Amino acid sequence: MTQDEESTGFSATERAAMKQRAEELRAAREGEKGSARRARELQACLDAISALEGSDRQIAERFHEIVWEVTPELDPKTWYGFPSYARDGKVVVFLQPASKFDTRYATIGLNDVAALDEGVFWPTSFAVLEINDEVADQLRVLVRRAVG
To answer: Distance from CA of residue 3 to its chain's centroid?
Structure first.
């Protein structure tokens, strides 16, 4: 741990993610509405995916296709720099690339607005090393279910 990490409690990567989120919020307040805002947020999502490399990019591209296919009502955007998909401005599902925090796998995460409640205990994130046909089928079901 560096002295900077000790003093703030956040790594450089975490601080960068927070800066990205602040930029996203500033852009959202700049007055764009409706289709102009949706187009800008879609482009930001596509740009975030394009900036990825290797398996992160392959996973993100395939995940984007799946979400777009099964839940076109979700709005693509970025959230802390992650490709994400929202309903009524609230992120339902997102992809955290492995490279973002130097982890060994990408994570598909679901926020509390996802309709996944199953008793008193259910998963809200999934580790992903690749999206093959079997995983794609499971993701289709999961995303459809999350939207309700």
So the answer is: 30
3-state secondary structure labels for all residues of 67-116: HHHHCCCCEEEEECCEEEEEECCEEEEEEECHHHCCCCCEEEEECCCCCC
**Residues 95 and 58: beta-carbon distance below 8 Å:** no
**Closest by alpha carbon to 65, among 145, 143, 147, 148?**
143
Question: Residues 6 or more apart from 44 whose CB is under 8 A from it?
Answer: 24, 27, 77, 78
Residue 64's nearest CA partner among 49, 78, 52 is: 49
pLDDT digits over 7-65, tens only? Answer: 668 888 788 778 877 777 676 666 667 788 899 999 999 999 999 999 999 999 999 99
Q: Which own/partner pairs from 91-96 qualify as long-range (CB within 8 Å, at least 24 positions apart)?
A: 92/146, 92/147, 93/67, 93/143, 93/146, 95/59, 95/60, 95/63
Mean pLDDT of the chain: 90
Comparing 18-22, 83-87, 117-121, 137-141, the range with the smallest average pLDDT is 18-22
Half-sphere exposure of 47 (CA within 13 A, CB side): 10
